[in-house]
Amino acid sequence: MTTSSLRLPAEWEPQSAVLIAWPHADTDWADRLAEVETTYVALAGAVTRFQPLIIVVADAALRAHVEALLREARVDLSRVRLVELPYDDTWLRDSGPITLNDGHGAFQLTDFRFTGWGGKFGAEQDDALVAGLVQAGIFGQAGHKRIDWALEGGGIESDGEGTVLTTWKCLTQRHPEQSREDMSAILRDGLHADRILWLDYGYLEGDDTDAHIDTLARFAPGHRIVFQACDDASDPHFDELKRMGDELAALRTRDGQAYTLYPLPWAQPILDEGRRLAASYANYLIVNGAVLVPAYGDKADDEAARIIGQAHPGREIVQVPCRPLIWQNGSLHCITMQLPAGIAH
């Protein structure tokens, strides 16, 4: 393998597995553990319909508990692998590996520094998770490259063709001393990309990632972009998301064409003890042959699923109940990390 042949695949390319970590009493889910486990069980059932699932568990007791829950829900345990490792929390989109491949069976696990979203939360164990998975033999002979620069997987979108989409709000919070040009150069080098597209607008109340792109706008096949819109002029998000939509409309593909845009509907405000929660439909997960779409118990759920299906033709659309997840400021994509075909053993 030559490093020049590596690239960051798009999420819709073939996968070998999805990686998650199970919530437990020593994570931030402790106060609502039984509630959030219903989402994790539903997610496990949905993923294993289409491909294997790797679940990180904290210890043998949690392993037995998870196996019992999945067995009771009739999840296909032959498609589940459990791995015991320590972790602080369960947001594997951000603490898991960003995997590059060369198209010929060689892989590089790109392991950026995870700082708990800019030091908001303790993250020492999460920052060591990729190394622990490598040591556990999950990834066979894949290379492991540590990069001492803070970046979360939820902060980047790849089209698989060398273009990466990200947000200025997030990366300038992580690296306030660096210019956009500096950060673009680091992203191009670390992700083997040649085009970095930046959004200056877009945010969601209740999101503590500083505007991760995977809550806002997602690449889809055929030069499409799916994005979270807001059609309620009285909502505090309206102006910001309209500006983001205008930015997306101004972006161009590598050959100078406009992207085809798919605006997603806006869920009604979901409050928890007066705190607005970030109910983004853009936070969906693509798996082999399907798209798993967050549902929040809102009247917009079905329309969001329909639009996501239009942007990803030929895939089954499976809604997963995600209202418990947004209590901790994330959703379906945030708790998962897909692994490209051929890497998981």
UniProtKB/TrEMBL annotation:
Keywords associated with the record: Hydrolase
Name this polypeptide is given: Agmatine deiminase family protein
Keyword Amino-acid biosynthesis attributed: no
UniProt-listed Pfam families: PAD_porph
Leader peptide range in chain numbering: none
Entry-linked PANTHER family: AGMATINE DEIMINASE-RELATED
Keyword GTP-binding: no
One Gene Ontology biological process: putrescine biosynthetic process
SUPFAM superfamilies listed in its UniProt record: Pentein (SSF55909)
GO molecular function: agmatine deiminase activity; protein-arginine deiminase activity
Gene3D superfamilies in UniProt: L-arginine/glycine Amidinotransferase, Chain A (3.75.10.10)
